[in-house]
Design goal:
By secondary structure, the chain is of the alpha/beta class. It is built from 15 helices and 16 strands. Helix content is 44%, strand content 19%. Helix 7 links the parallel strand 5 and strand 6.
């Protein structure tokens, strides 16, 4: 489906609409049409109220069940669209007086949108494509959105509802369901845009840079790697919180825990810790919806070969009911097998920076499991190594109003400071 000027079209209209896209975007700029953050916030707040009132339960509840998202977690997501959250976001990222910057000598200053943003969305979080567009709208931009493959229609539904509530937004939202293989079409979007916003891994970011003209800004929210860091005296309560986080996200988010680094040099102590976590993990996993049989089957095959090679790799493998904890000798920060399969590795606190710093821009969140007396030292070492967020293990995937995207404020990336004379 396509959303174009507030109307939903089927994909057969794609060629014709794309031919009109540049002129329609430029026409909006030529007419000096503007949207205020207040208009966007009002519309989002009305949608959030409708969601809380159950107006969309027919669509939302089956989706939550399929994705095994607890209602409490969903309610936290709703809060991101509410008035208080969005007003705080704008004030935090652009400043209270961002519309009235002080003059410089004879020049006046103000913050303006980049102009036109092309969003290449990732599909690992439902509603993220729509939220990316909302961020673009808050900064005053026209937004072209490429839906991720497998989008369930939620993005178009949300954005269409937004336009129905505030019709002036129709000239600032264009959504296309274009496959990533249609490179020439994506290049057209990139050539129209002042900025390309790409959500994805290194391959997606590299592809965006290649398709964007040299004079187009590329704003990359790349895939990151997150992990837990634990001392041997970590509390069972924290280990349970970490296990719950892993089960809720199935390790699909940038902030999802892929594995656990443990503050020890002792391999025997590492194996004991891994078994301790596995027992808790197994118990917690049973409270959640089971992972799909396809993913369990894929990981079962991988674990079978890991077991066959364990005498060479010196890995200790704990697995049952589709989950696993693998104790390893190496210190590599890497993606796990996903879907409730976790590695556990030794990383003495003195070696944190040496081991993690080479990963630089791939680092995001660390869930910290330690006694209070160690928290400050370990947090500082992890931050110095390049981590962006240090959280409690249960909160690794939680988003707080006022947080950055990977250390940068999105609305600042989507705007520019201009100087002019009256």
């Amino acid at each position: 489906m396509i959303l174009y000027k507030g109307i939903v079209y089927d994909d057969s209209k794609q060629i014709k609409l794309i031919q009109s896209l540049k002129n329609d975007c430029y026409q909006t700029l030529s007419l000096m049409n503007k949207i205020e953050a207040k208009d966007v916030i009002d519309a989002c707040d009305q949608i959030a109220k409708k969601v809380r009132n159950g107006d969309y339960d027919e669509t939302i509840l089956p989706l939550l069940s399929t994705l095994d998202i607890p209602i409490e977690q969903f309610e936290h997501y709703i809060s991101m669209f509410e008035r208080d959250a969005l007003e705080k976001k704008v004030k935090t990222e652009l400043g209270v007086d961002y519309q009235e910057l002080g003059d410089i000598e004879d020049s006046k200053r103000k913050i303006m949108p980049l102009g036109i943003l092309f969003h290449i969305a990732a599909g690992n979080v439902d509603a993220l494509p729509a939220y990316s567009v909302i961020e673009g709208l808050l900064a005053g931009n026209i937004n072209i959105l490429k839906l991720p493959s497998g989008d369930n229609g939620l993005s178009i539904q949300l954005l269409k509802e937004l336009i129905d509530i505030e019709p002036k937004l129709k000239d600032f939202i264009y959504v296309f369901d274009v496959p990533s293989t249609e490179i020439e079409t994506l290049k057209i979007f990139a050539q129209i845009a002042d900025g390309v916003v790409v959500w994805g891994g290194d391959v997606a970011v590299s592809a965006a840079r290649q398709m964007a003209p040299i004079d187009t800004k590329v704003i990359a929210w790349g895939h990151k790697l997150s992990f837990a860091y634990a001392t041997l005296d970590a509390k069972d309560e924290d280990l349970e919180g970490l296990a719950n986080h892993i089960c809720e996200t199935n390790q699909l988010l940038c902030s999802s825990c892929q594995g656990i680094f443990v503050d020890t040099d002792d391999r025997k102590a590492l194996d004991i810790f891994a078994k301790r976590f596995f027992d808790i993990f197994l118990k917690v996993s049973k409270r959640h919806k089971q992972v799909s049989i396809g993913m369990r089957g894929k990981n079962t095959i991988t674990l079978y070969f890991e077991n066959l090679e364990s005498h060479k790799s010196n890995k200790t493998i704990f697995h049952q009911d589709g989950i696993s904890v693998i104790s390893c000798d190496d210190q590599n920060l890497e993606l796990s097998m996903l879907f409730r399969n976790v590695w556990v590795k030794r990383l003495n606190r003195e070696d944190i920076i040496k081991v993690l710093k080479p990963h630089k821009n791939h680092l995001q969140t660390a869930g910290l499991l330690c006694a209070k007396k160690d928290a400050n030292e370990l947090s500082n070492k992890l931050l110095q190594a390049g981590l962006i967020r240090i959280t409690k293990p249960k909160d690794m995937a939680r988003y707080y109003v006022g947080e950055t995207h990977d250390g940068t404020y999105a609305l600042r990336e989507y705007t520019r400071v201009v100087e002019f004379i009256d």
